[in-house]
Amino acid sequence: MSRFWLKHSVLTSVLVHSSWWPYRPTLNKLHDAGKRKVHYLFTDGKEMAEEYDMNTCDLLVRKWRQKNTLGASGLWQVEVGEPAPSAAGIVDTEQIKESNSNPIFMRKDTKASFQWRVRNLPYPKDVYSVTVDQTERCCTIRTSNKKYYKKFSIPDMDRMQLPLDSSALKFSHANNTLIITYQKPKEVLAVEEELQKELKKMKASSDGDVDCKTQ
Predict the structure, then answer these.
(1) Which of 25, 30, 67, 208 has the most CB atoms around it within 10 Å of its CB?
(2) What is the torsional sign of CA 133, 48, 52, 18?
(3) Contact 150, 105 (CB under 8 A)
């Protein structure tokens, strides 16, 4: 028996068998300025919002938020896309200049790969080391000059409980940007393909309501 509101659909089957989400979501879809926006609301109070390019179906944004102990919605946590601006904001010119020169880490996927970019890293490629830690289920960026260090996970792989593969990880460097690429395994590609098929079938109105059959 399905645990999701969208019963008897490929989307439901994909979500259940991939172990992506343990709680059933309701979905809203909205078309806006060439983007397909999908909002997921889970029974435990968590929310997920995604944005896709309607022409290429590339994932542009994925972010999560959940309610705090008082029941109020927390801040969005960006998983894919440009990092959220600081809530406090930056008003001092020198602070803005310093912020613009600091490394900026973000994820921007392609159809075939998970991809991360670290802007404002001016060092040559041979300074960097990017490795997979199978035990901690994360990737680590190091520099031989000890100027930058970063650990990050791949939530998609964790949700589907797939092992990390060192041979799938590659990196390059150009224009002061470190680009890290992890080839998506066939299991992830299959899930994403089926999700896109189902999302395209869902009808969205201007207010975001979705026409979904639940018989």
Answers:
(1) 25
(2) positive
(3) yes
Number of H helices, E strands in the chain: 4, 14
Q: What string of DSSP letters covers 183-197?
A: EPPHHHHHHHHHHHH
Beta carbons of 154 and 162 less than 8 angstroms apart: no
Buried b / exposed e across 29-60, counting CB within 10 Å, b at 16+?
Answer: bbeeeebbbbbbbbeeebbbbbbbeeeeeebb
Q: Which two tokens stand for residue 92?
A: 């001092």
Query: Given a cut of 60, is residue 81 above it in pLDDT?
Result: yes
Residue ranges of alpha helices (H) inside 33-152 are 93-101
Per-residue CA distances from 144 to 45, 136, 171, 200 (Å): 43, 22, 16, 46
Strand bridging mode 113-119 / 104-107: antiparallel
Instruction: Compute φ and ψ for 164, nearest 5 degrees.
Output: -85, 145
Cβ-proximal residues to 93 (8 Å cutoff; 6+ apart), any chain: none
Q: Read off the pLDDT of residues 128-182 as tens digits, 9 standing for 90 and up.
A: 999 999 999 999 999 999 999 999 999 999 989 999 999 999 999 999 999 999 9
Residue appearing with tokens 């008003």? 91
Among residues 23, 45, 27, the alpha carbon closest in space to that of 37 is found at: 27
Question: Cα separation of 143 and 83, whole Å?
Answer: 23
| pTM, two decimal places | 0.77
Amino acid residing at 94: E
